[in-house]
Amino acid sequence: MSNETAHAADRDSGGGSLLDRHGEALDLFSDRVHAIRPDQWDAPTPCTDWNVRDLVGHLTGEQLWVPPLVRDGATIESVGDSFEGDVLGPDPVASWDTAAAAARAAFREPGALDRTVHLSSGESSATHYCGQMTMDLVVHAWDLSRAIGADEKLPADLVEFAVREVTPYADELAGTGLFDRAVEPPPGADQQTRLLNMLGRKV
Fold first, then answer.
1. How many CB atoms are located within 10 Å of the residue 83 CB?
2. Rg of the chain (C-alpha set)
3. CA 122 to CA 114: how far, in whole Å?
């Protein structure tokens, strides 16, 4: 294991590894996907341009990218438009489950976190990519929870991880079009509220 990988794997002060946090974030989002009622797929979400199906489709597409990028060393160009359009099909829950399982397996392959992945932003370590994916799952789990009326309280260890992960580049996210500008947190805001405000969510 490289020094960078060892640092990333141990950066959770709770003693868990990066892969533990990633797995927990996948489980959290999966739990919310399985809680969606049939009449809620068109419901609005805190992501202004997405309904529930759009949100789940976005996260499913993100998971579909993991095996080719991490396991196969593919580039954005070589994958092309394979994961564009509707990736959910007639059974969105099953589509999510399949994509999530494949992403989990790809990151957990021996040596996977030592690899370099080719992202749209350029080359990146697989540890950084896994951290970004974990943060994304945590925040969107809150989005989905609010959209379907599920418990909005996020696990403390995942909130702590997401705060540490996103803080160095939070200011850049609004420019991606995927996040709104940061919101000023209220006095005495807890860590979850600060995380969500940092990513443009009005709690």
1. 16
2. 16
3. 17
Residue 11's pLDDT is 41
Place of tokens 């829950």: 93
CA-wise closest residue to 138 among 36, 41, 59, 44 = 59
pTM for this entry: 0.88
CA distance 91 to 82: 19
Q: Give me the number of domains the chain comprises.
A: 1
Element (H, E) at 167: none
Let me know if residue 175 belongs to a domain. yes
Cα–Cα nearest to 149, from 24, 57, 44, 49: 44
Q: Tokens 């697989």 label which residue?
A: 126
CATH number at residue 51: 1.20.120.450
- Among candidate residues 2, 9, 16, 25, the one with its CA nearest the CA of residue 128: 9
pLDDT value at residue 202? 87
